Amino acid sequence: MARAARNCPTLLVYGHYDVVPATLADGWLTDPFEPIEKHGRIYARGATDDKGQLFIHVKALEAYLNNGGAPVNVKFLLEGEEEVSSPNLRPFIEQHLDLLKADVCVISDSSMARIEEPAITHSLRGMTYIEVEVQGPTDDLHSGFWGGATHNPALALVEILGKLYAPDATIAVPGFYDDVVAAHR
Fold this sequence. Notes:
Elements: E1 10-16, E2 36-38, E3 41-43, H1 51-65, E4 73-79, H2 89-95, H3 97-100, E5 104-107, H4 143-146, H5 153-162
Parallel strand pairs: 1-4, 1-5
Antiparallel strand pairs: 2-3
């Protein structure tokens, strides 16, 4: 943590440095983990998700520290498990709430439409993993005997998936919104 002053606000910067595995067979023209510069751009695994964004924050803080100090207190939370759903992040946060206390949190794990057009993303959505398993007969069933009497597993799957969303495009899973804070518009 770089300390500005006791009465200054505290900024928490979150980011991740892990990436999804990659090989040349995935379509890379060069080693994905060796950065190269082409036409003024850096190409490397994680350069835009999320190592580049993290580096910008580190270099900005470095510039402040080399020129008299930062106008705010700065903390970094750098994670290495984001690409596998962060299994240890919540326990870490719960155990270190005092260490992570801040006035504002900045997450730069988002994108811009064009380099000339910076973007400020004010919220991000989470994700949910769901596994749906449908079982049916182990053998083919003759439609003359069984058609209509036995529910088709493919049809059952479509029906189950169709019930995940309400007609207004909200999620219809009971309890899904229980801990969601309503958006203010």
